[in-house]
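Exercise 3.2. Students should predict the tertiary structure of the chain below and write it as structure tokens, then compare their answer with the key that follows.

Predict this chain's 3D structure.
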Amino acid sequence: MQTLLYAAKRGKRAYLVGDGIVATAIYNEALVVANEEKNYVSVFAAEGDAEGVCLSHLKYTLQNARLTADFPLGVSNESTGEAFSVSVEKGALCVLWHESPVHLIERLMKEEAV
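Answer key:
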């Protein structure tokens, strides 16, 4: 997880993928996941507090929320079957969701081609 945060703080995106779970970190930015499957999504404060957190196109949305390491507000949300977004204005988040590795690789290759 620390490596994911290291990459995010340098403007890069890294992923941990295994057993149908994908994890990444974002830092003062937004992440859009074009995952058309309905599944679970969890968002955690990665270091200290995360402010201005917004979750869109998930069962439980947030607007301008504050996530802390000691209260699991972002755990076990659900995607709606359309692209979802997670953003943070100030701070870092770890974002985890269910997605097949094959689907992830195909999606990332499409994004790289654009």
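Discussion points: The CA atoms of residues 48 and 73 lie 14 Å apart. The chain has two helices and nine strands.
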